[in-house]
Amino acid sequence: MTQSDIEQRQTALMRAFGRHGVSRCAIMASTFRSGSTWIGRIMDRHGLTGMKHERMRQVAAQDHADSRLDAVLSMQPGPVFATRLMWAQRNRLAHMLRLPRLQSSAFAAQFPDAAWLWLRRRDVYAQGISYWRAKVSGRWHALSASDDAEPQIPYDFAAIDLCVRDLVLQDRLWEDFFALAGIAPLTVWYEEFLADRTLLDGYMRHFGLVLHETESDMKILGDALSRDYRDRYLDEVFRRSKGLDDAGKAG
After folding, report:
1. Fewer Cβ atoms within 10 Å of its own Cβ: the N or the C terminal residue of the chain?
2. In this structure, what is the dihedral angle of CA atoms 68, 74, 79, 84, given to the nearest 10 degrees?
3. In this predicted structure, what is the pLDDT of residue 188?
């Protein structure tokens, strides 16, 4: 690939937005099982069309940029591009655009007049349990009307621990990206939104929209088994941590 080809690739998203008449972006940056689908569907229903989807999910690092991006943007046309964006999707998109970590500002500049929302979850242990159960069972979401019980999955410390660590890493990578790109996103914690549904009012007003009904049509999937496994996981982490090296402690 020539330098000219690389430069063309690096502006492919910006040019795609221009071709499709997109002048503003609403981007929810998040990690898996953070409540992004639950909240995104509320925002989508109130006018941020596309926020219930991960619209960059099908982008692969080796894709031909123009054709793939045109396909993504043509699915829901309009001047505002709204999407949920998981870290893995942001990373694949950056690789497709040939924009490495230190060019995070150039990556951010691809999105015209972007308002970044960073949805996070304080209880990463519960999030990790949820992520692990979804990966194993294949059941990622359920509508509120569904009365199906959650699949009962045998406890697996190693698999849960891997999910927790993966989510922590992805959250730190989002933090690194925002710092490098000079972005100050609106940070909303999932648990706090459940207690105060007005936390997104300012973000929605930025697009001339109002949240007037904040109940989601999605079921919150946490149950007694998840809570039990969370305690069991933390008990095991506590037991395993008794041999931690404190050599760094002043003696």
Report:
1. C
2. -60
3. 97
Q: CA 50, CA 82: separation in Å to the nearest integer?
A: 5
Question: Which pLDDT does position 171 carry in this prediction?
Answer: 97
For residues 48 and 204, the answer to whether their CB atoms sit within 8 Å is yes
Mean pLDDT computed over 26-37: 95
Between CA 94 and CA 87 the distance in angstroms is 10
Question: Rounded to the nearest 5°, which phi and psi values hold at 117?
Answer: -115, 125
Mean pLDDT of 198-227: 86
The residue to which tokens 């690789």 are assigned: 95
Rounded to whole angstroms, the Cα distance separating 237 from 164 reads 12
CA 96 to chain centre: 19
Residues whose CB is less than 8 angstroms from the CB of residue 200 and which lie 6 or more positions away in sequence, other chains included = 39, 43, 117, 188, 193, 211
| Helix, coil or strand: residue 50 | coil
Mean pLDDT of 34-44: 93
**Which of 119, 80, 116, 104 has the alpha carbon at shortest distance from 10?**
104
* DSSP class of 249: S
Q: Two tokens at 54? A: 């991960």
Order the strands of the 80-86 sheet from edge to edge.
Answer: 80-86, 24-30, 114-120, 186-189
Based on its alpha-carbon atoms, the radius of gyration of the chain, rounded to whole angstroms, reads 20
Give the tokens for residue 195.
């207690």
Helix (H/G/I), strand (E/B), else coil: 24: strand
Q: Is 175 left (phi over 0), alpha (psi -120 to 50) or beta?
A: alpha
Please provide the CATH number assigned to the domain covering 3-240: 3.40.50.300
215 CB neighbour count, 10 Å cutoff: 8
Cβ(29)–Cβ(90) under 8 Å?
Answer: yes
